TrEMBL record:
Name used for this protein in its record: MBL fold metallo-hydrolase
Organism lineage string: Bacteria, Pseudomonadati, Pseudomonadota, Gammaproteobacteria, Lysobacterales
Entry keyword set: Hydrolase, Metal-binding, Signal, Zinc
CDD domains, sorted: OPHC2-like_MBL-fold
Domain (Metallo-beta-lactamase) ranges: 105-296
SUPFAM superfamilies, per database record: Metallo-hydrolase/oxidoreductase
InterPro entries given in the database record: MBL_superfamily_lactonases, Metallo-B-lactamas, RibonucZ/Hydroxyglut_hydro
Length: 318
């Protein structure tokens, strides 16, 4: 005869079973380690700052630096262009986002590799379309002066990624840095009248690379992601088995762009090509388990892309 359990024990067992049934599959194991000590020994130049999120890529010290935010109306003219408004709102609502305004973060990535200080994109600077310009203070809080940056890797030449290259006087903010961007992107930047001053300021230090090139052997490799701009690049950063994929503008919104990669966003120069590239990059990230760094996802924009219910979802690192 089976023993009679107290009601409290039966309730506990039922609750445990229910929670187990509802649990979602865990994302792939992280390749980015827990936050390390500050980039240098704590001193007056290296301080706690809400706009600096430190972590490791293997043995490489890294930090996401928050530059600011971009907000625009959810009116179907920018995000999810041509998609049914009700479906767009449903994706946003399920992700806990408002349905009247779209919010994108603006972030850059800082990495130390030996005696080199690497910066991936430079934020929006003083651009009037964004509430931004916090990169200089965040960089200082991370213990780095602009003159110490040795390499800047530009994903593409949109102003929220190159706006921080110049200081308030119009001079190069990072005077000793080589500016790496793909040859097609550099050619397009030079023909854009709006970027004439920028092109002139950085020209002496530009490295216009072949798309997909290995830029720092064993550390940084460019990844072609066509369609957004003429030479848009993501970057893979490696240290041994640890890898991080900085995706630039391959995906803009953590819910809409990831769950509906075939929906158009107005920022893409060649939307059909960009949509195909976006889906391919998301599949690559999901299938390899690489940790992703996105400059526009909610700060600090680190996580994994996982397959779920026939599409992809964003699983931020906790």
């Amino acid at each position: 005869m089976r023993p009679i359990r107290p009601a409290r024990a039966i309730l506990a067992l039922a609750l445990t079973a229910l929670l187990a049934a509802c649990a979602e599959p865990a994302p792939p194991p992280a390749t980015v380690d827990a936050p390390p000590p500050p980039m240098e020994a704590a001193d007056d130049a290296t301080t706690a700052n809400a706009d600096v999120h430190r972590f490791n890529i293997g043995t490489l010290q890294a930090a996401v630096l928050r530059d600011g935010d971009i907000r625009f109306p959810n009116d179907g003219k920018t995000l999810g262009v041509g998609a049914p408004k009700a479906e767009l709102d449903a994706v946003l609502s399920k992700a806990g986002e408002p349905t009247d305004t779209v919010h994108l973060s603006v972030q850059t990535l800082l990495v130390r590799s030996g005696d080199r200080v690497l910066l991936f994109d430079t934020g929006a600077g003083a651009a009037d379309f964004a509430d931004a310009g916090r990169l200089p203070a965040a960089l200082q809080a991370a213990g780095v002066e602009p003159a110490q940056v040795t390499d800047i890797f530009i994903s593409h030449a949109h102003p929220d990624h190159v706006g921080g290259l110049l200081d308030d006087s119009g001079a190069a903010r990072f005077p000793n840095a080589t500016v790496h961007l793909s040859a097609p992107e550099w050619a397009a930047l030079q023909t854009d009248d709006a970027n004439a001053a920028l092109a002139a300021a950085i020209q002496p230090r530009v490295d216009a690379f072949t798309p997909g090139a290995e830029l720092l052997p064993g550390v940084v490799t460019a990844v072609e992601v066509d369609g957004h701009t003429p030479g848009h690049s993501a970057y893979e950063i490696t240290d041994g088995d640890a890898r991080l994929l900085y995706i630039g503008d391959a995906a803009h919104h953590f819910a809409v762009s990831v769950q509906r990669p075939q929906w158009t966003i107005a920022f893409d120069g060649d939307a059909p090509v960009a949509e195909t590239s976006r889906e391919a990059l998301l599949a690559r990230a999901a299938d390899t388990g690489v940790t992703v760094s996105s400059p526009h996802f909610p700060y600090p924009g680190l996580g994994h892309v996982v397959r779920r219910d026939g599409t992809f979802v964003w699983a931020p690192l906790q």
